[in-house]
Amino acid sequence: MASVHIPVMLAEVLALMKPQTDKTYLDATLGGGGHTRALLENSSPSGQVIAIDRDAKALDSARSQLAEFSSRLTLVLGNFAEIAQLVLEPVDGILFDLGLSSDQLADKSRGFSFDSDYPPDMRMGENGNPAYLLLEKGSEQEIADVLYRYGEERLSRRIARRIIAFREKGEKSTARALASLVCSCYPGGRHRKHPATRTFQALRIWANDELSNLESALSQAGGMLNVDGRMAVISYHSLEDRLVKGCFRSLTTGENEGKFALLTKKPLTPSAEEEKRNPRAHSARLRAIVRVA
Questions:
Q1: pTM of the entire structure?
Q2: How many domains does the chain have?
């Protein structure tokens, strides 16, 4: 099945990564494979790309869609929190695209989308507890805290109360029902984005332990770069971007001062043309760094 994912800020990523032949690049978030393909095409004819994903379906799709590059592409199943154990060799570039793949969103059985009639599983891979199970077991206080901490949802307590009431009725839990429940907590009228956006973000982060995994991956990634190696990270909300900014600050100051240099003093954002073509790119923020010594 062909990927429906559109790689975000592709031109900007290539300009920062500067892929070259005879170099090795790591795409730590394979997803739909768009960035991986671009790295392969732009490091032709002998550049190598290693691509990691915790979703076996993403690897299966890439194996088919990128078959022409099989001699230069290594696919690795795993969580990028263990990036240094998954990839033992030093590399010349690392890319993290932290967004949810459009392929995962389009797969209704995963429960990521607001209109899915499947339970809100929301796991990126097959490990861990699905979001619906966490909602079934979590206390009202725990759920409210998760929605506020990971979704910055100002109505977190009201939504948590409704979730508990819904759960006690024993009604079928689906992503669509959850989205409708969240909408009922908001006043009527037009909203700039879907009212359930923050709740779904929070539950996805909770189910996948995303922030802890990201912090772990970033702490290892800088040490994996060769001299002149570049690392680029695309984040989609302030919690992710804050971790990336903090990691880059630690790599360019203190005991690391002089070893790394920022390539982006401020995060780059998508062009108006890209946002029009791919609305899901709207919140993207791109930061990059280079190892200089």
A1: 0.94
A2: 2
Residues with Cβ within 8 Å of residue 236, at least 6 apart in sequence? 98, 99, 283, 284, 285
Q: Give the CA distances from residue 216 to residues 62, 143, 222, 260, 286, in Å, rounded to whole numbers and listed in that order.
A: 25, 24, 11, 19, 19
Domain-located, residue 3: no
Residue 34 lies in a domain: yes
Same domain, 110 and 245: no
Same domain membership, residue 220 and residue 94: yes
Q: Considering the domain boundaries, does residue 238 fall inside one?
A: yes
Mean pLDDT by 10 residues, the chain (293 residues): 79 98 97 96 97 95 96 97 97 94 88 95 91 95 98 97 93 92 88 91 96 97 97 96 97 92 97 93 96 92
Residue 167 lies in a domain: yes
Q: What is the CATH number of the domain that holds 226?
A: 3.40.50.150
